[in-house]
Amino acid sequence: MSRPYDQPIVDIVNYVYHHSLNQDDEATWKCARTALLDAMGCAIETAATSTECRKLLGPVIEGTVVPDGFRVPGTELQVDPVKGAFDLGVLIRYLDHNDALGGAEWGHPSDNLGAILPVMDWLSRESLSGRRVHDGPPLTMQTLLIALVKAYEIQGCYQMRNAFNAYGIDHVVLVKLASTAVVCWLLGMTDEQAMATISHVWMDGHPNRVYRSGANTIPRKGWAAGDAARRAVQLALLVQDGQPGAPGALTAQPWGFWERTFGEAGFLLPRPFGSWTVQNVLFKSMPVEGHAISAVEAAILQGRRFRQRGLSDPLKQIQRIDLRTTAAAFLIVNKHGPLHNAADRDHCIQYVVALAFLKGSPPEAADYLDKSPWANSEELAALRERIVVQSDPRLTEDYLDLDKKSIGAGMTVHLADGSSLPQILIEYPVGHARNPKTPAAVQEKFFQNMGLMFSATEISRILGAVQNPDTLISDFIDLFVQPPAKARF
Ligand SMILES: C[C@H](C(=O)O)[C@@](O)(CC(=O)O)C(=O)O
């Protein structure tokens, strides 16, 4: 190596290439298998229910045949690994139902599977057909779980203290970073090549998060992670084919990434890379923006209390709803004015709270669609206007505290007769690692999602494959292949 790469680049490569995860740490592997199954369930849910998303899938030129290509779960499609990363990333992420993690930055660690699985599946098929001699790690379930834990960890550690959003950069930059690192390893690239590829990540243009916020929230927020996964695979393949990297991509003056963003101090990491993130993700029990889930739980409970009091007309009987929440929720999903599309609705805390209060149960993906009765309900629109959202310093502190990592919201309903339904505070919603109801809820979600396309026997085959460390990834992916499903909506 002629010039040394910037230290954060070296650290990531050392972790991915030379840090051994403890094979006996069953807690980590159990979480990794759960995360994998949850993400695959989300992909199947999207494939089975979202006609809007299915339009984004498949080869650029219809009918293209890719020998040994990645077989896109929940479909009959077979595509190259770059488009495959986009397609799987989109399927996992589109309905905002996949796992999430908050910090100074936030995001969805399972987005990385969008890159990991297509690359492993394609490599596995190419090796089997003899088209390629693979000299990376074995293309098995065990390797997949290692790649998953490491990608989660890179993304998670970076998220904790580095607010990319403060520079307008979308959090999928971390999907690009983490996916790139593990994909290089999976491809059997050298350390030096992996560093070169990561330097390309920092030199890359990064999407501006405007598509997730305010009146500009559009479906791109559902494909941005797929785009990042795609780019990770593409950059790795470019470097594998001989492209060099730029060792000072972060620190160079005046054009390095830090000079334009975080400054000389660079990135802050809360702890050395290990296997913390995979054990601390928030599994989404409902397709709701992560920071709004506690508020939805509180709304369901308050709605129940409201009805138990014999009240039935929210517009006549509710004067105001006060909602305290984290600064992140306030920044991301506090929204007034017209809502233009499904993405816009699932990123509006007032919409999901009013919906849950009126409906008495959690939002479902169909409740966000333009044609949903809720999207057109005057009652919901009027109740939404009565919800006053405030950023709460203590909830924000606890959200950023790595020993607490709560994701809280408190809701008080002020009634027209001057009385109130006292605050309900939810700090650890179902899906949070600390909530005892989480394992059962994640399991139920998986069976529900998979049941949209697969029989009980097929589902138990998938569960068996995940338990076996030697399962070949192409055999695993074959278990998810389906002809086009009849779209539900
Ligand atoms: C991480 C978030 C989520 O839980 O859904 C987020 O809403 C964050 C954001 O918009 O920045 C997301 O859509 O990725």
From TrEMBL:
<comment type="similarity">
    <text>Belongs to the PrpD family.</text>
</comment>
<dbReference type="Pfam" id="PF19305">
    <property type="entry name" value="MmgE_PrpD_C"/>
</dbReference>
<dbReference type="GO" id="GO:0047547">
    <property type="term" value="F:2-methylcitrate dehydratase activity"/>
</dbReference>
<protein>
    <recommendedName>
        <fullName>2-methylcitrate dehydratase</fullName>
    </recommendedName>
</protein>
<feature type="domain" description="MmgE/PrpD N-terminal">
    <location>
        <begin position="11"/>
        <end position="265"/>
    </location>
</feature>
<dbReference type="GO" id="GO:0005739">
    <property type="term" value="C:mitochondrion"/>
</dbReference>
<dbReference type="InterPro" id="IPR045337">
    <property type="entry name" value="MmgE_PrpD_C"/>
</dbReference>
<dbReference type="InterPro" id="IPR005656">
    <property type="entry name" value="MmgE_PrpD"/>
</dbReference>
<dbReference type="InterPro" id="IPR036148">
    <property type="entry name" value="MmgE/PrpD_sf"/>
</dbReference>
<dbReference type="GO" id="GO:0051537">
    <property type="term" value="F:2 iron, 2 sulfur cluster binding"/>
</dbReference>
<dbReference type="GO" id="GO:0019679">
    <property type="term" value="P:propionate metabolic process, methylcitrate cycle"/>
</dbReference>
<dbReference type="Pfam" id="PF03972">
    <property type="entry name" value="MmgE_PrpD_N"/>
</dbReference>
<feature type="domain" description="MmgE/PrpD C-terminal">
    <location>
        <begin position="287"/>
        <end position="462"/>
    </location>
</feature>
<dbReference type="InterPro" id="IPR042188">
    <property type="entry name" value="MmgE/PrpD_sf_2"/>
</dbReference>
<keyword id="KW-0456">Lyase</keyword>
<dbReference type="InterPro" id="IPR012705">
    <property type="entry name" value="2Me_IsoCit_deHydtase_PrpD"/>
</dbReference>
<dbReference type="InterPro" id="IPR045336">
    <property type="entry name" value="MmgE_PrpD_N"/>
</dbReference>
<dbReference type="InterPro" id="IPR042183">
    <property type="entry name" value="MmgE/PrpD_sf_1"/>
</dbReference>
